[in-house]
Amino acid sequence: MTRLLAIETSCDETAAAVVEDGRRILSSVVSTQAALHAPYGGVVPELASRHHLENICPVIEKAMADAGLGFPELDAVAVTQGPGLVGSLLVGLQAAKGIAFVHDKPLVPVHHLAGHLEAPALAHGDIPLPALALVVSGGHTSLFEVPGRGEYRLLGRTRDDAAGEAFDKVAKLLGLGYPGGPVIDRLAEGANDHAHEFTIARIKDGRPDFSFSGIKTAVLYHVKREGVTPVEDPAQATPEIRDLVASFQRAVVTALVRKLKQTAQQRRPRSLLLTGGVAANRRLRRDAARAAEELGLPLFVPPIALSTDNAAMIGAAAQVALEQGRRAGWDLNADPHLPLG
Ligand code: KG4
Ligand code: ZN
Fold first, then answer.
1. Model confidence pLDDT, tens digit, residues 214-223
2. Which pTM does this prediction carry?
3. Atom number, ligand 1, closest to the C-alpha of residue 137
4. Residue 162 Cα: closest atom of ligand 1
5. Which backbone phi and psi does 331 adopt, to 5 degrees?
6. SS3 assignment for 226-280
């Protein structure tokens, strides 16, 4: 039995979890800073690192207390090394190093996206491999092939904005607050998603890449041309705004699912994974489920608490890394652009 303490501070969630054998969550604590960054319509890196610093010790202490364990009982300490905001990553990294050093435990470095990629197995148990995974969050929109356990091969990614970033920016320009994804998801329900035709750039060079900066600009031009007035509060959203965000959401989700389906037809995986913060989107879940059915493949989507940033998924990925013999030295540094696959 292996018990890991995992720490995640790559963006605006301060998170710690204790995970047993990479499968059982003994505790998972997530302290989100969303309200702190809301007035700015996006994450302010300096504010994020300062708040990680204030929250990191109480979050770790709560994770240990909830698990009913003391540090000496741990088998390893895992931490997100990157990618992410460097000032935020460093807070988690230093905390992890401190605990591992004092208690003489192995230190396991984890790639943030490996965490997202292991979330479906953490939630549902062993996944039929090879799998094709769509990781879609505020910072990433990537297609990975998972040929074997702990193997991640990057097939495609966004060339500009991430899908979640597009949700956040469109929400911001309409006065709907931050993070924008959940609000747009809610406002779009029951609205006319065919009110506007927004097109998503199709990448023509054969790579399964994405591009979402064009649609954000298209929505901005529409708002200016039609004189749409931003609201003060999502509760004041007019039918015009609801139709607009529903049409935007349809375009983004259609592009994501189309690429997932096309790539699955080419790569012939045995399962599909949908993970990352935007995987919480109900339209995306519905459309991806339909595509999976048409392909005759099982689709694994973690529950929302494991889709958005959390440390339990980092613990699950760390278990795989630990079994593969990955250890970091005391010179481990944060890498804001750490590659995977
Ligand atoms: O994975 P995550 O928590 O953090 C990153 O690693 O980026 O993802 C956060 C992103 C934000 O852009 C947020 O707007 C988006 O996920 N998001 C959603 C929904 N819930 C969260 N986007 C669309 N629909 C949702 N229901
Ligand atoms: Zn993430």
1. 999 999 999 9
2. 0.96
3. 8
4. 12
5. -90, 10
6. HCCCCCCCHHHCCHHHHHHHHHHHHHHHHHHHHHHHHHHHHHCCCEEEEECHHHH
